[in-house]
Design the sequence.
């Protein structure tokens, strides 16, 4: 019997805190040893001269999520996880989305059925709470948290998803009491509705006006409000898909006060601008997502914010709709105006290669920050860090060995999603995952998938460490006791 199932030799390993040269010994799907000159393995992989990073954890993606407008998400758990794996992601956290009136238990059962025979990599679920009814708050959600669904998303916009302020307080209170993490989509719904109506009345309905209908101040106001609720309720929150300077400054201010406000941003805010929505004809619809991409100045600001630590997480927000498809970007009344175009763009497979090339190789971020943002922090934030998000003895052997290459353009025909475009077409890359391992098995080698659908496992989430109750270091001098002390 050999000591290891596999040894990755001569690895230049990056974790969120260190860079070191080592062999990696893998046994029974886990990292069993990190040391020089390991021997005794059935298989050996030589990683000399290549970066070796933890498999990516994509903390925000949408797979096979039913919609209410006649559209259809292009990727199910098979194509979505295959695409993710090719791009170096070994864990995904898509959403199990509650429509108003639905039982959360039914929603969770439905998403398990969608995932179980199809996923090629491991997955957990975030819940989307759109109907915090007494049954949900008093019974279903506490029980689901105890069963491993410890993080959920709230929307401040979209008519079929949004909560009012009072409902948000209800959910934040529940999250504090149960130690769950709340993710918030922060845009002011009434402002967007008002602007959309006015733009339509003025005949301004082309895809570009989607960005005009959701300007930065609309995101900033909602971000400020969400942070105020977090402060009031003493509950940590994560603001998702932050698009630019305005909202980031609100997060920074909350963090500077010592509040546990976390931020996530995504490739679309580093690589796209509102000008991409202005492309010829209807092409701009390919880049419609919410919040929308902003300005080149915002892009530059977001790069520096990624490097200076205001963001904890870099996710794809993969929300895949095909372009030339009556159930995609051009469904139903979409040609009548941006209001009807489904929001969301694909990005599961391109998230890591884009950030690796333009962040790490071009010197904008340190490789340790790359690992933290794309793997370690999302694993910690969502209670998966017992096994995922790092290369350490005892962790799952979820590993990416990077191939650096002469510059080449990213094209959609390289990708494995079920979407007929990538918004990042033509952007130059200099690296791609050569080998991707999931629980010690090579699932991608030189662009070839070596994994069967159904091998991916559901990961129940532990309580996230950051979601413990928080208190400003520099608290407002309350004349009365904080809510969390009066209503523990
Ligand atoms: O436009 C976006 N981001 N679509 C996906 C849904 C969401 O709000 O994350
Ligand atoms: Zn959102
Ligand atoms: Zn999303």
Sequence:
């Amino acid at each position: 019997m050999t000591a290891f199932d596999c040894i990755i030799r001569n690895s230049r390993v990056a974790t969120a805190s260190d860079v070191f040269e080592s062999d990696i010994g893998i046994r029974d799907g886990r990292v069993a040893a990190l040391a020089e000159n390991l021997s005794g393995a059935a298989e050996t992989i030589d990683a000399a001269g290549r970066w070796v990073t933890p498999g990516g954890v994509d903390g925000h993606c949408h797979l096979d999520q039913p919609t209410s407008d006649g559209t259809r998400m292009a990727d199910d758990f098979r194509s979505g996880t295959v695409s993710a794996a090719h791009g170096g992601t070994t864990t995904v956290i898509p959403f199990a989305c509650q429509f108003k009136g639905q039982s959360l238990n039914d929603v969770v059962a439905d998403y398990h059925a969608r995932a179980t025979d199809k996923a090629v990599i491991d997955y957990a679920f975030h819940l989307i709470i759109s109907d915090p009814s007494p049954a949900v708050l008093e019974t279903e959600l506490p029980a689901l948290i105890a069963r491993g669904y410890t993080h959920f998303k709230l929307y401040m916009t979209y008519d079929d998803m949004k909560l009012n302020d009072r409902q948000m307080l209800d959910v934040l209170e529940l999250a504090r009491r149960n130690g769950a993490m709340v993710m918030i989509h922060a845009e002011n719904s009434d402002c967007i509705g008002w602007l959309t109506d006015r733009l339509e009345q003025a005949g301004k309905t082309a895809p570009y006006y989607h960005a005009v209908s959701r300007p930065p101040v609309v995101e900033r106001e909602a971000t400020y409000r969400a942070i105020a609720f977090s402060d009031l309720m003493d509950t940590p929150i994560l603001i998702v898909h932050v698009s630019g300077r305005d909202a980031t400054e609100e997060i920074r201010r909350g963090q500077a006060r010592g509040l546990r406000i976390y931020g996530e941003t995504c490739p679309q805010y580093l690589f796209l601008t509102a000008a991409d929505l202005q492309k010829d004809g209807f092409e701009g619809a390919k880049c419609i997502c919410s919040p929308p991409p902003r300005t080149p100045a915002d892009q530059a600001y977001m790069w520096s914010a990624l490097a200076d630590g205001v963001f904890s997480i870099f996710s794809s927000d993969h929300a895949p709709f095909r372009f030339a498809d009556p159930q995609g970007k051009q469904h139903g009344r979409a040609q009548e105006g941006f209001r009807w175009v489904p929001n969301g763009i694909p990005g599961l497979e391109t998230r890591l290669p884009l950030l690796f090339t333009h962040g790490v190789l071009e010197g904008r971020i340190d490789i340790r920050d790359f690992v933290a943002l794309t793997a370690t922090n999302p694993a910690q934030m969502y209670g998966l860090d017992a096994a995922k998000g790092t290369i350490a003895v005892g962790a799952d052997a979820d590993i990416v060995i990077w191939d650096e290459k002469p510059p080449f353009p990213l094209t959609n025909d390289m990708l494995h999603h079920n979407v007929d475009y990538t918004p990042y077409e033509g952007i130059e890359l200099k690296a791609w995952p050569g080998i991707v391992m999931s629980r010690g098995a090579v699932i991608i080698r030189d662009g070839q998938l070596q994994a069967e659908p159904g091998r991916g496992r559901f990961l129940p989430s532990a309580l996230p460490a950051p979601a413990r109750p928080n208190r400003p270091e520099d608290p407002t001098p309350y004349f009365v006791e904080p809510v969390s002390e009066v209503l523990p």
Observations:
- Residues 185, 240-241 surround zinc ion (ligand 2) (CB under 6 Å).
